[in-house]
Amino acid sequence: MKRIAYFSLILASVAFLFTACGDDKKKEESSTPTTEENTQTEESSSSSEEKSDVIEIVGNDQMKYDKTEITVKAGEEVTILFKSVGELPAEAMSHDLVVLDQGTTAQEFGMEAAKAGSLKEMSDEQKESVIVATDMLSAGQEQEITFTLEEPGKYEYVCTFPGHFASMQGVITAE
Ligand SMILES: [Cu+2]
Description:
By secondary structure, the protein is α+β, with helices and mostly antiparallel strands. The chain has helices spanning 2-22, 41-47, 106-116, 124-127; strands at 54-59, 69-72, 77-84, 94-95, 98-100, 130-133, 137-138, 142-148, 153-158, 169-174.
């Protein structure tokens, strides 16, 4: 019985968090909040209120983006505020967010970046599939990127820090 009560408490707080961060972003994504980890959503929800069209994405010490599915309008300017959070030093844990053109998967681009060593060391030809990228950010840093996805479709994004691409991927749907 106690276990059930505890579970419904968790459900209630998840539902609260979900509605609390859902109202400043007008989109119909159905991504479930699978945050078993203790992510700090309080600070992110309070600071993103002045600019409602900015999509905030956080990368953390668990090598995860807090959002892995976002939806935008094709042909319209999009701004992503990418934040790197955590406790680990820059050499051990940093993140970037690289948006890839259609036809290039996060998986294949991540592997190529890993082979090259970093995004900067990739060839111009390899970088042709990059629509926009943040710098490599250590915990506490943040950066805004603004871009337009002209064609409707799916655009994957990935972190190119060594070893991260497998768990740090997401998809932007332009419609
Ligand atoms: Cu990363």
